[in-house]
Amino acid sequence: MPIRTHSLARPARELSGEDAYRREMPLESGDKAPAISLRDQHGAAVKLSQFKGQRVVLYFYPKADTPGCTTQSCALSEALPLMKKLRAVVIGVSPDPPEKQRKFDEKYSLGFPLLADTEHTVAEAYGVWGEKVNYGRKYMGIIRSAFVIDEKGKLAGVYFKVSPKDTVPKVTAALESLS
Fold this sequence. Notes:
Glutaredoxin; six-stranded mixed β-sheet; 10 strands; globular
C-alpha cells in the first residue's frame, strides 16, 4: 500500500484559461515522479529515466557539508547495503554546484550520485523549494525531503520536511512495502 506523508503544497505554475486560478496539489504516493536532468558531482549528466526499472531513493538536502545534511547523507551511505538488498539506488539533490558536491562526496565517501540543482528547477518540480525561516530571517531554500520511486517511475513514498535521522527508516519502510 502506498505511503502518504506530506505537508507542503507544490508551488503554483502558470496556467491558462479555466485553470488559471487552480493551484497544484502536493506530490503524493502514486503520482508520476517528475523528470530529472542534472549534473552530478563529477559533471556527468544524470537523468531519472536512466533508472527506469529500478527503485530510487531521491532525497533533497539544503547544503552540502552542513551538520544536518551530513547526518542525512552519511546515514544513507551507511544504509547502501540495505538499499541494494531492497533493490534501490540512492540519489541526493541540493542547490550546490558540482564542485561542492564532489568535495562533499570525497570527504565522506558517500558512494552515490549527488546532483547539482543550482537553478532549483527540480526542487520546484518536486515541491521542495520554499520559504524557510532561520533565527527570524526568511529566505528561499530546499525543504529537506525524500521520495521513493518505484520501478515504473511512480512515487511510492513521499516525505516532506523529513528529519535527517528519520530519512533511512522512512524510505526503508516504503521500499519494504513494495516487496
